[in-house]
Amino acid sequence: MDASQVSIYELADNWLRLDKNPVTRLQIETLKNNQDVDALEKLLRIPIEFGTAGLRARMEAGFARMNCVTVIQASQGLALYVKDNVKTAETRGVVIGHDHRYNSEIFAQLTAAVFLHCGYTVYYLGGLSMTPLVPFSVKYKGAACGVMITASHNPKDDNGYKVYYENGAQIIPPVDSGIADYIKKNQEIIVWGQEDYKTHDNVKSIKNELIDAYFESSKKLLLDSELKNTNNLKYVYTAMHGVGTPFCNRALETLGLDPFIPVVEQIDPDPDFPTVAFPNPEEKGALNLAQKTADAGGATIVLASDPDADRFAAAEKQPDGSWFVFSGDQLGILLAYFALLLAKSKNTPVNKLAMVNSTVSSQMLKSMAEKEGFKYRDTLTGFKWMANELIKLNQEAGYIPAFGYEEAIGFLLNPDVLDKDGISALACFVQLAVYLNNKALTVKGFLESLYYKYGYFVTENYYYICNDTDKIRKIFDNIRYGPEKPNADFNAVPRTNFFCTHNGKTLKYPLEIGGAPVSYIRDLTIGFEVEQLDTLIKSVENSQINISPGQYQPSLMVSPSSQMITLETANGGRVTLRTSGTEPKIKYYIEMSGDSTDKAAVITSLKNLVAAISDEVMEATKNGLL
């Protein structure tokens, strides 16, 4: 049924024909009887879109939300797509896990029922699972795909459907669009059997075996079998009302580390997340209860995972009694250094290692690579890109996948888990903290020493709220093409020296931000990248030139459906502006780097760049951006 061609009441009747869940049926029936057209339109008209992140939305009735119908439809499309595109898919099977959120178990059971109906072997992870166990199990068993039912750190009313492909990594284009097409072509419900997974011969209930294998694999992350907590470092752990506790316990035990002090109020799974406004360790104040527990227990380290245990956060108590919460970039550099220590402890040549991070994460990892000699790449945002880049580097050039991270506290340290893994990251961080503590060093103090070695990098990442999609487009077009009606000041600044025609339009990116020359431009919306901007400007010399096809093409994938521009300045600044795929936000990631002997100057330059981006580039006040 083409939703755009029928009345809302026909869509409601179609929903009621498909749905067997009494709760969501009643919701649509009530709205239909009350003739609440606006609510029905929101729930039914535009179907939930399947993409590289799978599905994620609020749990409600309707084709636009997460519910039994949309989960079954997604599973039907996925099962049939994989069967047609992965050899011996049914025999190789599918791994299915779920977290503790409301409806997660039901959604997992229905997913299993669909795959069983399609002839698959199903590795069903009964009971609560952490997300990293699914990609590990896909790779370990050589499965054709995997599904994890989770909404990670989203609010309690949300849920999601996360998909892994046969290589153990999240799906990327064109697989995502291929699956989406199959979902659209297979909307009729073929099976609704919640209990089928319990008795079917094709169900392999080997969760304990897979958990054992995961922790056996984690032993490769052991830095030193003789590492002992000689100075009695104490650390507190919070599961943020999620599933991480038993996995964290076992990780520490496996690597011979002391147990943690629990944040009792947050240690057990609770889908209501009662003690936090948002179950995300990144949110301001999210670690307050853990810090209070640490103060009471004499601990100096706080450890946290998000509810599905794929992200990791940490804080350290400072000599003055305050708590320093490490940013995702700071943890990334610390864990990258741990990966170096780990490689050296196993006599692995550093030049054989590959490390990656997302393009919105700190360039300090690149600086580390230049000084230490390992292979570095940056990727688009998301672990699907980082994992697939590590796979590519391994297959094409034999590099060993050693580390990957994104600034949003996601870290990959075990190449057997090709996604972010909060449990592995936690275990490695604890080893590093104990290792440093035995040398009478703090983690923050050690981070400061890394700044002296690799350069001082400071960041400010946040977002503007804008509900007007047309205004967002105009803002980005103004950056790349110049204002539609340039004023006198615009014509007076150096940026008008740059005239290049790209796809029939003249590019007029800013050549100066906050008084600093722009040295690099990458626009992943239109497909333009230039590294030595001053050289290009000299070649233009105020005369317009056409960019031929293939010239100045970005190394990263271009996506015309989203906005993303990166600018670098000659004084060490780097700015990435991008739209959010799920929220009315323009996100910005601003970094300044410089000499660690003059940190105050670097911080001042960062503040100036942040202000210049707001005033000159985004024109936040004029555009009413919050």
From TrEMBL:
Its localization reads: Cytoplasm
Its main localization is: cytoplasm
Question: What Gene3D superfamilies does the annotation carry?
Answer: Alpha-D-Glucose-1,6-Bisphosphate, subunit A, domain 3, Alpha-D-phosphohexomutase, C-terminal domain
Q: Which molecular-function annotations from GO does this UniProt entry contain?
A: magnesium ion binding; phosphopentomutase activity
Q: Which keywords fit this entry according to its UniProt record?
A: Carbohydrate metabolism, Cytoplasm, Glucose metabolism, Isomerase, Magnesium, Metal-binding, Phosphoprotein
InterPro entries from the UniProt entry: A-D-PHexomutase_a/b/a-I, A-D-PHexomutase_a/b/a-I/II/III, A-D-PHexomutase_a/b/a-II, A-D-PHexomutase_a/b/a-III, A-D-PHexomutase_C_sf, A-D-PHexomutase_CS, Alpha-D-phosphohexomutase_SF
Q: Any keyword Transport?
A: no
Q: Does the keyword Nucleotide-binding apply?
A: no
Q: Which domain of life is it from?
A: Eukaryota
The Alpha-D-phosphohexomutase alpha/beta/alpha domain extends over: 49-188, 213-317, 328-436
Q: Which GO terms describe its biological process?
A: glucose metabolic process; purine ribonucleoside salvage
Cofactor(s) annotated in UniProt = Mg(2+)
UniProt GO cellular component terms: cytoplasm; nucleus
Family per UniProt?
Answer: Belongs to the phosphohexose mutase family.
Protein name, please?
Answer: Phosphoglucomutase
Question: What organism is recorded for this protein?
Answer: Smittium simulii
